[in-house]
Amino acid sequence: MNSLAATHEILLKERTSSIRRGLMDRINRDSRLIAVKGSRGVGKTNFLLDFSKEYYAGDDSCLYVNTNNLFIVHDGLFHFVERFHKLGGKVLLLDQVYKYPGWDKELRACYDAFPDLQIVFTSSSIVRIKSNPYLKGIVDMYNLSGLSFREFLELETGKCFPAYPFSEMVEKHEEIAASILKQVRPLAYFGNYLEYGYYPVYLEQKSHTDYLLKNINLTLEFDIPYVSQIELKYLKKLKQLLYVVATDSSCNVNISRLSSAIGVSRATVLNYLNYMHNARLLTLLYEEGSDDESGRKPKEMYIHNPNLLNAICLDKVNENILQKSFFLSQLCAVNRMNYTDEADFLVDGQYPVLVCQEGKGRKAQDSVIVMEDMIERGKGHVMPLWLAGFTY
């Protein structure tokens, strides 16, 4: 236990983050069991360390541990937690717990046995937490997204910017944009964000594209098969489908066409799309009132964020799809997004939104919110696209 505590201290000392993730304020610290889900590279480990540093600095009753540790694998998770509790432990931060066999059952046993112990654990975005029979009703779950454009600007400039609900942006976007423009010229940083700014690890990586492609392959080759039990011989089909989606400028979900393109059944295509949606490689859009559990097929599909799209397509990126991917990646973290015939997207069942290049949406009806790229300020129902990056 002493060696684990020493490792915890070393990790905290090495943690030199200059940004505080907004999710920190949304965590219910009174909850006894907290799950932080996220895709590869969004910073789940660093979030646990920052949680420890902010709320339990110098407190020996809080311990960070990676459950891949052989000590835990040998003794068992429950017995490790029991020992930690006996030694006065109060807060346990468990990283990558979902890779431990029977993790959900043992977490439930810990929850029942130690009522004065708080456990915060990280999980892959693929893993279903809320519907898990052992954890249902006792776990508070949070999704950690990649860096918003706002958070990226904070890292790049050292300045602080508030986040705004999309509804407030619609009403006050001219005023909000003016206040931001007093401190920074967002468009000077926007291109870099689209290329590599979504994943905080960009600060440590020299080759952003290589890193992203490696993460994509790890997700497809290890994460998805680990949870979904896909046979290895079908991994090529998953990769083919991801590339087909990335290079499809229509974004329409045509199951028959996709089935023919990669040589699998229609049902398999739907399963693959859902796997990659859960892995945060894709974003699937449904009509309002539908979702992936309704049994209906999605209407549109997009690569989850512009960094992934750039890495997959390289110099073949469709600019309008890139703009839409950015908008979705920013709003999906905090808003309900649906397909609509009226525009490109429907936000929270209330705001139809058109995403386009500068000057392309001026003929849209006033009831449609137009998000235009490459403008600093908007007017009326026309808003600058970069401002969508300030929703979280």
TrEMBL record:
InterPro entries: AAA_14, P-loop_NTPase. This is AAA family ATPase. It holds the Pfam family AAA_14. Transmembrane segments: none annotated. Residues 31-153 form the AAA domain. It comes from Candidatus Odoribacter faecigallinarum.
